[in-house]
Amino acid sequence: MKNTYVLLLAFFTATQLVQAQSLSIEQLLEKELSGFNGEAGLYAEHLVTGERIAIRADSIFPTASVIKVPIMLGIFKQIHTGKLDLDTALVYRDSLRYGGSGIMQYFKDSTDTDLSTLLSLMIGYSDNTTSLWCQSLAGGGGAINELLDSLGLEHTRVNSRTEGRQEAWKKYGWGQTSPREMASLLIMIRREELFSPELSQKMYRLMTKVIYDEYALSAIPPYVQTASKQGMVSDSRSELVMVNAPSGDYVFYIATKNNRDTSWDNNNEAYRLQRSVSGMLWNYFEGETNINLPSRKSEETSPRE
Q1: Which fold has domain 1-59+178-195+215-305?
Q2: What pTM was estimated for this model as a whole?
Q3: pLDDT tens digits, 96-107
Q4: Architecture of 66-174 per CATH?
Q5: C-beta contacts of 205-211 below 8 A and 24+ residues apart
Q6: For the segment 218-236, what is each residue's pLDDT rounded down to a tens digit?
């Protein structure tokens, strides 16, 4: 039995498995999210078939560190316009240090580095120090928000250290988005629609090197490539994932807020939800039907909104 099956079975009792046979994938996911002690939203899309699953997909959620994807976008705009280069030399100073996740905060003052290192640490290790540094190098939150607006993203914004966003920062923290918008941003990157094919490819490569694989990624076989970004604060845990699956790419964004469980162990309720939703989507899109969950390959594939 594959590890994916074992993981999924952990979330479904025998009774639930029988009931699942009569429910659509969207109904199953709605049931899974509605049982969460907090607020949860989901957007998923199969890039080949165009099938969509949307559950509170246009509600606004805190991004936490997922805002580092728009910050990365801001940096690549600067690269595209010739103002920065991946090899741009930089010097780390203690005044840049910011706590939380990441390792650059432990660098010695006056350490030589470069923009490529900052980007790798920001995305791969969710490094806070490099992220705030990159936000500044990108022209600040205001410049990044103008870029997001030009892409048709209404709700996705940088709030922290951004003029005019203080009230939004109090409510949502560093950044905010909706599941549909954040997923659409990753789709643009995957389809090489941003700046140039080469720069889009570089952004996507960065997102395939994330180290946080204990959550949604753990429900996807390790030999399948994924591009992702995770965001975690006490009462909000979210995850953006593109899966380069055998039957075709699919993307999803699972967002939570007002979480009752604010623990940080691996059994946190939001982490369990992320693993469960990811496993259900993998099973559905990849047609693993022998665990009695619905499969796209055994249903009519009409787009869902």
Answers
A1: Beta-lactamase (3.40.710)
A2: 0.89
A3: 999 999 999 999
A4: 3-Layer(aba) Sandwich (3.40)
A5: 206/72, 206/119, 206/120, 206/123, 206/124, 207/69, 207/123, 207/242, 209/120, 209/123, 209/124, 210/123, 210/124, 210/126, 211/124, 211/125
A6: 999 999 999 999 999 999 9
